[in-house]
Amino acid sequence: MKVAVIGASGYVGAELVFLLSRHDKLSLEYLVVSEGSTSAGKSFSQLHPRYQGICDLPLIAFSSHWLEQVKDSLDAVFFATPHEYSAQWASHFLQHGIKVFDLSGGFRLNQPQDYPQYYGFEHPNNDLINQAVYGLAEWQRQQIATAKLVAVPGCYPTASLLALKPITNNQLHAENSLIVVNGISGVSGAGKKLSMATSFNEVSLTPYNILQHRHQPEISQEAQAQVIFNPHLAPYKRGLLSTVTLTLKSGVTVADIDNAFNTAYQDTPLVRISADWPKIDNVAYTPFADIHWQFDEEKQVLVVSCAIDNLLKGAASQAIQCANISLGLPSHYALLPTTASELGNG
Ligand SMILES: NC(=O)C1=CN([C@@H]2O[C@H](COP(=O)(O)OP(=O)(O)OC[C@H]3O[C@@H](n4cnc5c(N)ncnc54)[C@H](OP(=O)(O)O)[C@@H]3O)[C@@H](O)[C@H]2O)C=CC1
Ligand SMILES: CC(=O)N[C@@H](CCC(=O)OP(=O)(O)O)C(=O)O
Hints:
By secondary structure, the chain is an alpha/beta fold. It contains 11 helices and 14 strands. Residues 6-7, 9-13, 33-34, 37, 39, 62, 80-83, 85, 103-105, 154-155, 188-189, 191-193, 310-311, 314-315 line the site of NADPH dihydro-nicotinamide-adenine-dinucleotide phosphate (NDP). One of its GO terms (cellular component) is cytoplasm. It is found in: Cytoplasm.
């Protein structure tokens, strides 16, 4: 599969490029940045020196002319770009039969009317929203396999849904009960753009966008249950933890919960049910999601926590899982760390 990465100069783009450079079934042909990008004309490794010798491809400024030139030589494109950019340009690739893996939120919400409120723009392509398949790899394999447009989940929704779906999918949660999702992300979650909120001297553990974050409708939609989502920014680079608290139906037992999680994740090497509470250090710089839960049978309250790397399972490695599925491969193909140094080399 010949592919291009658009947004290659960003944090997610860089992770994608590395994973693609080592994948024998995906051939990385082009790296693209925005038309006015200060990175255009540089090589990828000039921007990301750690990848010198791994990928030295040039960064090409996007243009319709470039798309016209490459439209017959590309099988798929990965968008690691702002939401509104993907929303606008995905159709231009799809019309040439080029599959789109969109790592932005350009096509995640099913309701067009939600985009102005949560993304700040009127969606330019309502028809395409209905064609998009949500790319939560361990839960959507069949749909992803035949999809032309995959909406790769956001980082918080990935961790929150991996924790929540075994419960809500089996209707084990009490109807109309409060489901609280507390997410904590490292600063790389905000991308490379400069801002005071993420500058070294200003970053401190804090809630943000409370009761208005765009991931609240995304998590509610995919869990098929209303949640309250509380994101927090924390002063470290990589990694994300999502802890979910909810009440289960009376009569639900530990055995029911055990069965729900073990059934959901019995053949998914990248999602690990851990014996203890997950730690960011155990998943940062890896494609894994670690999950642990605890149940208070008296109160019928369940707490589930999931840790991931926001740039990998929360973005780039999940996108590769989706591409693997579309190639008929196991979703974890070419992603499992094979050496100790790949296990969170920091
Ligand atoms: N950071 C994270 O943990 C996660 C991020 N995401 C999503 O992935 C996408 C990329 O995120 P991230 O890498 O963190 O962001 P960055 O800000 O680090 O990178 C954004 C990239 O998009 C490019 N870009 C900006 N404007 C345009 C444009 N108009 N046309 C084409 N390219 C453009 C930038 O290139 P240049 O400026 O050089 O043109 C840059 O390469 C976003 O949609 C984000 O929401 C998803 C999951 C996790
Ligand atoms: C710390 C931080 O700023 N995180 C980002 C989430 C990034 C992400 O994964 O979400 P999208 O794919 O929807 O952008 C935020 O809260 O906006």
